[in-house]
From TrEMBL:
Pathway: Amino-acid biosynthesis; L-asparagine biosynthesis; L-asparagine from L-aspartate (L-Gln route): step 1/1. Belongs to the asparagine synthetase family. It catalyses: L-aspartate + L-glutamine + ATP + H2O = L-asparagine + L-glutamate + AMP + diphosphate + H(+). This is asparagine synthase (glutamine-hydrolyzing). Keywords: Amino-acid biosynthesis, Asparagine biosynthesis, ATP-binding, Glutamine amidotransferase, Ligase, Nucleotide-binding. It comes from Microtetraspora fusca. SUPFAM superfamilies: Adenine nucleotide alpha hydrolases-like (SSF52402), N-terminal nucleophile aminohydrolases (Ntn hydrolases) (SSF56235). Pfam families: Asn_synthase (PF00733), GATase_7 (PF13537). Residues 2-215 form the Glutamine amidotransferase type-2 domain. The keyword Ligase applies. The keyword Electron transport does not apply. The gene is asnB. Its EC number is 6.3.5.4. GO terms for molecular function: asparagine synthase (glutamine-hydrolyzing) activity. Signal peptide: none annotated.
Length: 613
C-alpha cells in the first residue's frame, strides 16, 4: 500500500516544478515510509511513496514501460490486485515479459494489453494514475468499492491529484476554501459521491475512471452495483458465500511482510480471523484488539452496545489458538494533543468521531510495531444487513437515510446544535440531506415485479453499500495509512458484494436475526458465544475522566478571543454544553458536540481554511 500524488499541466514544463511535485509527494510519506520516487516529463509529474508489501526490491515506483528506449506509459499505484498472479500468467502467454514479481508491473502491462478495459479484470483494492506518454493523457482509476482513496483538482490547463487532499493542498494552485456545499457535506453525514469538501476538489468515485486530456476531463463508471435475479436456494446460497469467503481470505493473506487480523469479538472480525487461521494451517494467526482501561469491569449498555468486546475476544482467541495482543488505552492517551493532532492530519477534515478516531489511530500505531498488513471485518454490516436499524421498521421507512433516523447516532447532538441560527437557515442541512437521499434512491434499480419490503430493503442495502460504507472505509484507510499500516477488507470483495446484495431480504434474515447468512456460513469455525452475539459497533470509551478533560478543553477554547470557529457559532449555545453534568458513565452521544467543536476549530487553524458561505 502506498501514497500517490501528481500534476498534469499542458501549458507549462513541469520539469521546472520538481520542488513542488516533491512537496506534494512528501505529504504521502505516512502512507509510504519505505521509498520515494518522482517521474517527470514536460507535461506530467508523477510521485510515489511506497509501503513495500509484495516484491520488496522489485516493485519500485513510479514504474515506466518502455519500448526501444521510448516511454509508453508510467504508473503510480496504491493498492493490491489479489489476482495478479493469474493475470501475470495470462499476460506472459500473450508475450509480455516481466522484470519484477510485483503486482504493480502486472497493472502496467495489463493497461498496455487491454487499454482502459483492463480494470474489468482486477480483483482488489487500488487507486492509481497512469500517464500514457504516447497520447499525453492521464487516467485516474479507483477500485469498485472505494477502499483506496483518490482525489483530484482540475486546473485551467490540467489537474492535480493525490491519495489524500493534503497532497493536492501542497500545491499553490489549490485553494484551502470550503464553501456552503462543502460545509453542508461536512455536517450532513451523507457522503455524497465525488464530493471532497474543499472547493474545486473532487474524489474519484468508486468504480470510476477519470481521463484527463489536453481538450479537458471526462469521467466513466466502469462498475456499479446492479440488481439481478437471485436463483440459488438457501443451502446453495450459504455454501456459495462460504466458498467466496474462503477464496477471498486466502488471497488476502498473500504478503511478503508480517500480517495480522483485527479482532473485536464481533461476528465479522471473528469470522475473518477464524478463516485466516484455517487458511494458515500450522502457522498461528496473529490478532489485535483495542480496549480501554476498566471498560469491561465498568461497562454500561447504551443505545448501540449491549456488551463489551473483551470476553468475546478471549473466546475467539481460545477457540482458534490465535497469537493475540490487547492494546489497552486510557483517557490520557485519548486526550493526548499530539495524538489528536495526528488523527486530524490523517483525515484532512474534521470528521468528528472523537475518541473513536484517536483510539483507532493508537491501535494501528501499536500494531504497526509488529505487523505491516492487517485484515479487517469492515463492511460486513453493509453487505449482510447487520446494523440494528436494518431491522427496525420505523427507521427503515423513515424517508431518509436510516443512519440519520436512528436514535443514538451522534449527529443529532453534533456541532450544528451550536451554530448561529441565521447560518443554519442558510445552510438548510435538512434540505441538503433530502436531496442527497433522493439522489441515492434514484440510483437503485428494482427488478420487475419487486415491491414491498424486498424493494425497500434493496434500497436500504444499496444506500449503505454506496454511501455509508464510504464513511467507514475512509476512516479506516486514513487512520491505518497514517502509521504505514495496510488494512485489507475481505467483505468488500466485489464478487461477494454483488452476490449478497442480490440475495432476497427474507433469505438474509432467514433465522430472524441480523447477518443470518454470514452466521450460517461461518458458524463451524466460531465459538458459540460469538455466533449468538448481537451486533456491537466499534467501542467508545465510557470513562467520565475523558468527558471531563474534553469539557476542560472546550472551556479553554471558548475563553479565547481569537477562536477560529467563532464566526459560525452562537457562543451562548456553545457555552451551554459545559453545563452538562458528567455522570459515573460517559456516553458518546453526550460528547459529540464538544468533540466536533474542538476538532473543527483545530482544523480551521492548522489548515488555514477559509469558510465562505
Amino acid at each position: 500500500m502506498c501514497g500517490i500524488a501528481g500534476w498534469v499541466d499542458y501549458d507549462r514544463d513541469l520539469r521546472a516544478e520538481r520542488d513542488v511535485a516533491l512537496a506534494m509527494t512528501e505529504t504521502m510519506s505516512c502512507r509510504g515510509p519505505d521509498a520515494e520516487g518522482l517521474w517527470t516529463e514536460p507535461h506530467a509529474a508523477l510521485g510515489h511513496r511506497r509501503l513495500a508489501i509484495i516484491d520488496i526490491e522489485g516493485g519500485r515506483q513510479p514504474m515506466a514501460a518502455e519500448h526501444d528506449g521510448r516511454v509508453l506509459a508510467v504508473l503510480t499505484y496504491s493498492g493490491e490486485v489479489y489476482n495478479f498472479r493469474e493475470l501475470r500468467a495470462e499476460l506472459a502467454a500473450r508475450g509480455h515479459r516481466f522484470r519484477t514479481e510485483s503486482d504493480t508491473e502486472v497493472v502496467l502491462e495489463a493497461y498496455l494489453e487491454w487499454g482502459e478495459d483492463f480494470v474489468d479484470r482486477f480483483n482488489g483494492m487500488y487507486a492509481f494514475a497512469i500517464w500514457d506518454a504516447r497520447r499525453e493523457e492521464l487516467l485516474l482509476v479507483r477500485d469498485r468499492m472505494g477502499i483506496k482513496p483518490l482525489y483530484y483538482y482540475p486546473t485551467p490547463s490540467g489537474v492535480l491529484f493525490g491519495s489524500e487532499p493534503k497532497a493536492i493542498l501542497a500545491n499553490p494552485l489549490a485553494e484551502r476554501v470550503v464553501d456552503a456545499d462543502g460545509l453542508r457535506e461536512l455536517l450532513a453525514f451523507v457522503k455524497t459521491p465525488e464530493s471532497a469538501v474543499y472547493r474545486g476538489m473532487y474524489e474519484v468515485r468508486p468504480g470510476q475512471i477519470v481521463r484527463v486530456r489536453r481538450e479537458g476531463l471526462t469521467k466513466r463508471r466502469y462498475w456499479r452495483l446492479e440488481s439481478r435475479e437471485h436463483t440459488d436456494d438457501l443451502p446453495t446460497t450459504i455454501s456459495t458465500i462460504r466458498g467466496l469467503l474462503d477464496d477471498i481470505v486466502g488471497r488476502q493473506l498473500i504478503s511478503d511482510v508480517p500480517l495480522c487480523t483485527l479482532l473485536s469479538g464481533g461476528l465479522d472480525s471473528s469470522a475473518v480471523t477464524a478463516l485466516a487461521a484455517r487458511s494458515l494451517g500450522s502457522t498461528k494467526v496473529r490478532s489485535f484488539s483495542v480496549d480501554f482501561a476498566g471498560y469491561t469491569e465498568n461497562f454500561q449498555p447504551d443505545t448501540m452496545r449491549d456488551t463489551p468486546d473483551g470476553p468475546y475476544v478471549k473466546d475467539v482467541v481460545e477457540h482458534i489458538g490465535a497469537d493475540h495482543t490487547d492494546i489497552v488505552l486510557n483517557s490520557a492517551d485519548l486526550m493526548n494533543p499530539v495524538v489528536r493532532a495526528a488523527a486530524l492530519r490523517a483525515r484532512d477534515i474534521p470528521a468528528g468521531m472523537g475518541d473513536m478516531d484517536t483510539s483507532l489511530y493508537l491501535l494501528f500505531k501499536a500494531i504497526r510495531e509488529r505487523s505491516t498488513v492487517a485484515l479487517s471485518g469492515e463492511s460486513a454490516d453493509e453487505v449482510f444487513g447487520g446494523y440494528r436499524w436494518f431491522h427496525d421498521p420505523e427507521t427503515v421507512n423513515a424517508g431518509t437515510f436510516p443512519w440519520l433516523a436512528t436514535v443514538g447516532v451522534g449527529h443529532r447532538n453534533g456541532l450544528t446544535t451550536l451554530f448561529d441560527e441565521p447560518l443554519l437557515r442558510k445552510l438548510d442541512i435538512p434540505a441538503y440531506r433530502a436531496d442527497a437521499y433522493q439522489q441515492a434512491l434514484a440510483e437503485v434499480e428494482s427488478l420487475p415485479g419487486e415491491g414491498g419490503l424486498q424493494k425497500r430493503m434493496r434500497e436500504v442495502s444499496h444506500m449503505h453499500l454506496t454511501r455509508f460504507v464510504q464513511i467507514l472505509l475512509d476512516r479506516k484507510d486514513r487512520m491505518s495509512m497514517a502509521v504505514g499500516l495496510e488494512v485489507r477488507v475481505p467483505f468488500c470483495d466485489h464478487r461477494l458484494v454483488e452476490y449478497v446484495f442480490n440475495t432476497p431480504w427474507a433469505m438474509k434474515t432467514f433465522d430472524g436475526r441480523e447477518k443470518s447468512l454470514l452466521r450460517a456460513a461461518t458458524q463451524d469455525v466460531l465459538p458459540r458465544s460469538v455466533v449468538e452475539r448481537r451486533k456491537s459497533p466499534y467501542p467508545s470509551t465510557q470513562d467520565p475522566a475523558y468527558e471531563r478533560a474534553l469539557q476542560a478543553e472546550t472551556a479553554r477554547l471558548l475563553g479565547r478571543d481569537d477562536l477560529a470557529l467563532a464566526p459560525l457559532l452562537d457562543l451562548t449555545k456553545a457555552r451551554n454544553v459545559l453545563d452538562h453534568e458528567v455522570g459515573t458513565t460517559s456516553l458518546q452521544e453526550n460528547r459529540t458536540a464538544m468533540e466536533q467543536f474542538v476538532q473543527f476549530n483545530a482544523w480551521m487553524e492548522e489548515y488555514g481554511v477559509r469558510v465562505t458561505i
